[in-house]
Amino acid sequence: MASEKLQTKYQLDIVHDVLLGKSNRIICYAEIADPKNVFLSIIAGTFKTIGLEDRPEMTLNELLTYYDPNNKYAEVGSVEKHWAYIYDNLHQFKDKTSATLPIINRGDRRWITVDLLPIEKREDIVVYFITDVTDIMNAQELNYEKTHKDSLTGLFNRYTLDYHYGERFMWPNFHVLYLDIDDFKPINDKHGHHLGNEYLIAFAQVLRKYESGYNYFYRLGGDEFVGLFWEDEDKVKEIAESIIEDTNRLLFYPDERGITVSIGIMRATKRHDVIRKADEVLYEVKNKGKNHFVYVVEN
Fold first, then answer.
1. Phi-psi region for residue 35, left (φ > 0), alpha (ψ -120 to 50) or beta?
2. How confident is residue 233, by pLDDT bands cut at 50, 70 and 90?
3. CA nearest to 264, candidates 193, 200, 196, 182
4. Residue 239 scores a pLDDT above 60
5. Which domains does the chain have, with CATH numbers?
6. What contacts 91, CB < 8 A, 6 or more positions away?
7. What's the predicted TM-score (pTM) here?
């Protein structure tokens, strides 16, 4: 047989040299009689390969305690959604599945892909192939961030706005805040884009102070920004007022000119084209003197 030839002629171990193949991979088996207490027992390789302690076995749940929620996929899609994808895939014992996730141990952050393979002859046993894919995933994570964030301000971009809006617009207490820096074009025309960019970066830092949970701001382009918030009316108004006050405190060389901002707020009830309606409220603010907000309930 071919397996015997590999062993006798080429001195290759079927498990370690053929199945394991690379030094960045681990092979484990697990008994799944108790799905809540699955032990990963080493067949080949070592947990040191993925930055963990060298030991003969650990539970699947223990491996998942090293999950790093501070990753760009979870930031965009939500930690809860990313975790559910990982947990569900690695506990689907009847089908071949896989999940890729970041883990961190004592500051050592790795990306691993965990492939689950059921054993046909024994329904109570599965095999896990765990591979270190850090180099590939670090590059992919960076590219993922670039496609979802504005390169100048670090806020989410229009692409992510569309995604979050589509996923969450039916949630209760939904508000859209449409923000525009007042008289921004004359600043650019007089002092150049360098100072204009400084304004935008500083303004984005103000906005970031008020992000929390699923509440985020997005840069559409130029000096236009949108916030998607799920809070009650009083909280949204408080945030809008604080943003205006914080923005007014920003001063810049060469003429120490302060920044002002106008905000149109639409509280969604019918949830139809809410961003456009918030933009219309913003123009109402502009026509009434700027540097304040108007709050409107969709009707």
1. alpha
2. very high
3. 182
4. yes
5. 2-141 (3.30.450), 150-297 (3.30.70.270)
6. 35, 38, 60
7. 0.88
